[in-house]
Structure formats: C-alpha cells, structure tokens
C-alpha cells in the first residue's frame, strides 16, 4: 500500500507556512516544549470553542498567540474577561509576557480540524457515524470545497473486528503541491474503544507566490471552489477496506 505523508507538512514552504514562527538559538528545545504545552493546554481549555489552529510567534520577552476559532465569542467572553483570565493561566506555563489575538474562521465547513472534531464529537454523542460523515461532506461541498475525503477506522458500530471505511466526494489531489489541502486526524472515544477520523479537504489551487508568514488580516480559506457544482451532495463514492 502507498505510504501517506501528512499533506500539511508536505506543503510547508511551498503554499503553507509554519504554525510556530521564531528563531530558537540555544533555547530551541525549551521553546519547542513550551509551544507544545501551550497548544495542549489551549486545545483542552477551549475544547468547545471550535479551535482550528494555534499560531505562536516569539520575540525576546513576548509570546504572541493567535487562536483561529469558529466561535470567538466563547474565548473573548463578556467584555474580554475570558481573554484576561486565559493570559494569566498561560503566564504560569511560560515566564514571558503573553499577547493573545483571536482570529475568526469565517467558513468553518472548509477547515479540516473543525470538521474532523465535529464528526468525532457527534460519534461520541451516539449519532450514527455514516450520518455524521455524510452531513459533514454535504456541508463542506455546499460551502464551495473542490473535494473532501473522510476515513474512519476502528470498531464501527461496535463490531468485533475493527475496519476502515472511506467516503469521498469531489477531488483531493494529494500529489499536487499547489492544491491547498487541509488535513486533520481526530479521535472519538466510544464505549467500545477509540475510533480514528481522518479528514482531507481540497480548497482549490494556489497559483503564484504565496506569503508564508502568518497574516490574519485576510480570510484563511482561499479556495477557488465552485459552490454550485456539487449536485446537492448526492454523488458519493464509498470505499470499504477490510483488514
């Protein structure tokens, strides 16, 4: 079977920038560990806020954290109280000054992390996995994605033997570097064990030179997809892999 590389790391430096932007120097390992702790803490703390990605930039004394989220109101809170509370909590992890920026993801249906986590949470809430996946695919295609692919693995429907199922619509050209493909791996903890959910979303192709430095003034989703070309999400391709 062909070996699959992570589509995001495969496009780093071509059409995709890094989520951590700083020069490490002698303290590279400490900074890396700190980034990992910050991300782990924020993802647990803001689990209900539909966080898509966390971008960390560092200067000598200041750590700037940009949280991309579909629900900024939950993070900001009433009059910005929640942000101040979050700053104090993060200062305990790192001894530097913290600045938190909130960036709203305008179209969460085109973000693989949000879509994957939504599917996983629905499966944990005992919704049938096929229904959750088909709804997610239809919503993504309706918002103008060029293609989406979802793979789910584990003890589906509580079966004795684990298996994998894949659902596709549109195109997801993983070998085309200029194709803007977003990827996510999420886990759903059910009573019969963990189910793994992988999501690939193709948001169109990027032509010309792309600015790789984090720039959150414009919308993150730049897909060229045509919203009217998905036939209402009816033409599914389904592939079943039995191991």
What is the helix fraction of residues, given as a range?
Answer: 25-40%
Order of helices and strands: HEHEEHHEHHEEEEE
The helix tally amounts to 6
Task: Supply Rg.
Answer: 19 Å
CATH topology of the largest domain: Ribosomal protein S3 C-terminal domain
CATH level 1 class label of the largest domain = Alpha Beta
What structural class should be given to the helix and strand makeup?
A: alpha+beta
- Tell me the β content: 25-35%
Q: Mind telling me the CATH superfamily name of the largest domain?
A: Ribosomal protein S3, C-terminal domain
How widely separated are the two ends? Answer: 12 Å
Question: Which whole number gives the mean pLDDT?
Answer: 88
Which stretches of 5+ consecutive residues score pLDDT under 50?
218-236
Total strands: 9
Whole-number tally of structural domains: 2
Sheet with the most strands: spatial strand order:
7-8-5-6-9
Described by strand count, sense and barrel closure, the largest sheet is: 5 strands, antiparallel
CATH architecture type of the largest domain:
2-Layer Sandwich
- Describe the global form: globular
Fold and architecture overview:
This protein has six helices and nine strands. The chain is globular. Helices cover 28% and strands 30% of the residues. A five-stranded antiparallel beta sheet has the order 7-8-5-6-9, covered by helices on one side. It has a four-stranded mixed beta sheet with strand order 1-2-3-4. The longest helix is centred in the N-terminal third of the chain and has 18 residues, at 28-45. The protein folds into two domains: 9-104, K homology (KH) domain (GMP Synthetase, Chain A, domain 3, 2-Layer Sandwich), CATH 3.30.300; 108-241, Ribosomal protein S3, C-terminal domain (Ribosomal protein S3 C-terminal domain). It has 243 residues and is α+β, with helices and mostly antiparallel strands. α5 packs antiparallel against α6. Residues 218-236 have low confidence and may be disordered.
């Amino acid at each position: 079977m062909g070996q699959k590389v992570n589509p995001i790391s495969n496009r780093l430096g071509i059409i995709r920038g890094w989520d951590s932007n700083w020069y490490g120097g002698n303290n590279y390992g400490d900074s890396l560990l700190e980034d990992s702790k910050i991300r782990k803490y924020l993802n647990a703390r803001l689990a209900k806020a539909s966080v898509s990605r966390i971008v960390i930039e560092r200067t000598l004394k200041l750590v700037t954290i940009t949280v991309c989220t579909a629900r900024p109101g939950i993070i900001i809170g009433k009059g910005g109280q929640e942000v101040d509370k979050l700053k104090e909590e993060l200062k305990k992890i790192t001894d530097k000054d913290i600045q938190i920026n909130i960036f709203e993801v305008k179209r969460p249906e085109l973000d693989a992390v949000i879509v994957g986590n939504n599917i996983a949470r629905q499966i944990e809430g005992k919704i049938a996995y096929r229904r959750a996946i088909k709804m997610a695919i239809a919503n993504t295609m309706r918002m103008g994605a060029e293609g989406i692919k979802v793979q789910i693995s584990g003890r589906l429907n509580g079966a004795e033997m684990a298996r994998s199922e894949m659902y596709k619509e549109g195109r997801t050209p993983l070998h085309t570097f200029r194709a803007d493909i977003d990827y996510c791996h999420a886990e759903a903890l059910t009573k019969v064990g963990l189910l793994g959910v992988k999501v690939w979303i193709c948001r169109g192709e990027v032509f010309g030179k792309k600015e790789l430095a984090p720039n959150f003034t414009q919308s993150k989703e730049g897909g060229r997809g045509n919203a009217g070309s998905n036939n209402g999400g009816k033409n599914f391709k389904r592939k079943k892999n039995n191991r």
